[in-house]
Amino acid sequence: MVRARAQGAARGRGSAVLSDFETTYSHERVEAVATAIAPYVRRTPVLDLGDVTLKLELMQHAGSFKTRGAFANLLLRDVPAAGVVAASGGNHGAAVAYAAHVRGVPCRIFVPEISSPAKIARIRSYGAELMVGGERYADALAASETWAASSGALRVHAFDQVETMLGTATLARELEEQVDAFDTVLVAVGGGGLIGGIAAWFAGRKRVIGVEPEGAPTLERALAAGAPVDAPAGSIAADSLAPRRIGELVFPIAQRFVERVVLVGDDDIRAAQASLWERARVVAEPGGATAYAALLSGKYRGQDGERVVAIVSGGNTVAVDFGR
Questions:
Q1: Structural contact between residues 211 and 290, judged by C-beta atoms closer than 8 angstroms
Q2: What is the DSSP string of 249-306?
Q3: Alpha-carbon Rg of the chain, whole angstroms?
Q4: Cα–Cα distance for residue pair 118/142, rounded to 1 Å
Q5: Angle at CA 197, nearest 5°, toward 244 and 176?
Q6: Is 20 helix (H, G, I), strand (E, B) or coil?
Q7: Mean pLDDT score of the chain, rounded to an integer?
């Protein structure tokens, strides 16, 4: 009964999201956000490998696509004197810390104990106050909400925020400018902020495929249930792709515009990391290699002549240590 009521509430909220969709995520609004954040973000390159084109968002400031949404939040919303607060598996925290550093506002970041040392080091390097505790993202989120309530700091949600998805929609806009013709975009899914923004921009004009670790099937479980529901939070990509459930604002967009979800195993992700290094000298973190893993493993098989783009979403990893 409780779950039924929760699903009904989520469906109601989803209907409201879709009723305002054309206004909230209009191309005109995304263009305005792209203009606003342009001085602060990189136009990341694409690389054609023949069977796939890579969008190398790991070359973004702070090492991931999250920087787009972080600046969108800080520029489009009123930031109080108390500054900003965010919970993160690591990449979002690094992005918000970087944006706060550039904009000169106070920042506190909460991350779980599974966060990568590379991501923790990134956050600290930008001068944010860092709090490490709890096993998973959900624990960090709860702690961040307590802090926001007591301090008055602005919550910058990692995925379930309109401004966050407007920021990620600028990635899709940029990709369409860079690649003349393509059919399909493979996108790793955690909470869904990246795929939500990308799907909102394309709105059915391109095939959008979600890719999730087998140990963290947040969107797959939600699509099967018809609403966001709790899912396992495992995998070697857990520090970026295991928030327990898909965002409520994300879900109706994904339900409408994401064609399907492909699940990949940890071995598939490791193989994708190795292949990206061998083929292109690209060093991706596990979550960053997950979209490409779907193609490399054969879990996603394109049709003859289908042009596929895989988003390499992050590169905050300790795989490279020149001092070692």
A1: yes
A2: THHHHHHHH--EEEEE-HHHHHHHHHHHHHHH-----HHHHHHHHHHHTTSS-PPTT-
A3: 18
A4: 23
A5: 140
A6: coil
A7: 90
| Domain contains 17 | yes
First to last CA, the chain: 55
Specify the DSSP class assigned to residue 60: S
The kind and range of the H/E element at 210 are: strand 207-213
**Tokens 């926001």 correspond to what residue?**
148
Q: Of 88, 120, 155, which one is at a domain's C-terminal end?
A: 155
Torsion of CA 118, 124, 130, 131, to 10 degrees: 30
Residue 166 domain-assigned (yes or no) = yes
Q: Which residues neighbour 142 within 8 Å (Cβ) at sequence distance 6 or greater?
A: 134
Please, is 155 exposed, middle or buried when counting C-beta atoms within 10 Å of its C-beta (0-12, 13-18, 19+)? Answer: middle
Q: Which residues contact 51 (CB under 8 A, 6 or more apart)?
A: 295, 308
Q: 17 and 118 share a domain? A: no
Domain, as residue range, for 287: 9-64+161-312
- The Cα 149–Cα 237 span in angstroms is 30
- Beta-carbon neighbour count of residue 204 at 10 Å? 10
Note whether 151 and 260 are same-domain residues.
no
43 and 149 co-located in one domain: no
Same domain, 151 and 185: no
pLDDT in tens, 251-281: 999 999 999 999 999 999 999 999 999 999 9
Q: What CATH number corresponds to the domain at position 52?
A: 3.40.50.1100
Closest CA to 74 of 114, 105, 35, 111: 105
Kindly report the pTM of this predicted structure. Answer: 0.91
Q: Which residues are catalytic?
A: 66, 313
Boundary (domain end) residue, out of 97, 125, 155: 155
What pLDDT digit, counting tens, does each position of 99-150 carry?
A: 999 999 999 999 888 788 888 888 999 999 999 888 778 888 889 999 999 9
Give the mean pLDDT per block of 10 residues along the chain (324 residues).
Answer: 40 58 92 98 97 97 96 97 90 94 95 84 92 83 91 92 96 97 96 96 97 94 95 80 86 96 96 96 95 97 93 88 71
